[in-house]
Design a protein that fits this description.
By secondary structure, the protein is α+β, with helices and mostly antiparallel strands. Helix content is about 55%, strand content about 25%.
Length: about 160
């Protein structure tokens, strides 16, 4: 009976750690500890209990963690800047990386902008696609460049 309580205590500790950290790291070991507790209650040898604990914990970790992480990440909302990636902006000040100038407007807000290609100059009024955010600057490509890249990616595939 002492082994059963020991495994249940370990399971409780793993669950508490998981609740505190929310990192999907110890919950799998709680499952293994419960299986080991059942084995102990059925009279299994300590070696069998430990093997069951390890096997069940590893199987749960390997098989279910990627699914759980995928579903949890899907519920995370993008921050304001992350939500801009892929959107179209309009150049309101010529973008010239060599001169260190350029601005674009997206969703009614003005941003400092730089071209993804260092030597590219993008004139005022051009529609550009936001490809990344670096600090407080939009990194953009002209829409024809993005279309060309997508077409070449499809040809390679």
């Amino acid at each position: 009976m002492g082994a059963v309580l020991c495994w249940l205590l370990m399971a409780a500790i793993f669950i508490v750690i998981e609740l505190v950290t929310l990192g999907l790291t110890t919950i799998w070991f709680a499952g293994g500890a419960f299986v080991a507790a059942v084995a102990a209650a059925l009279g299994a040898d300590l070696v069998i209990q430990v093997i069951l604990f390890l096997v069940v914990s590893i199987v749960l970790l390997v098989l279910t963690r990627p699914i759980a992480v995928k579903h949890l990440d899907a519920n995370i909302e993008k921050t304001n800047s992350e939500a801009l990636i892929g959107q179209t902006a309009v150049v309101i000040q010529e973008i010239n990386n060599l001169d260190g100038v350029g601005q674009a407007k997206v969703n009614g807000m003005e941003w400092t902008a730089r071209a993804k290609k260092e030597d590219e100059i993008i004139p005022v009024g051009t529609n550009v696609t936001i490809v990344e955010i670096s600090g407080v600057k939009l990194i953009v490509e002209t829409e024809k460049d993005v279309t060309t890249e997508v077409a070449s990616d499809k040809k390679e595939a």
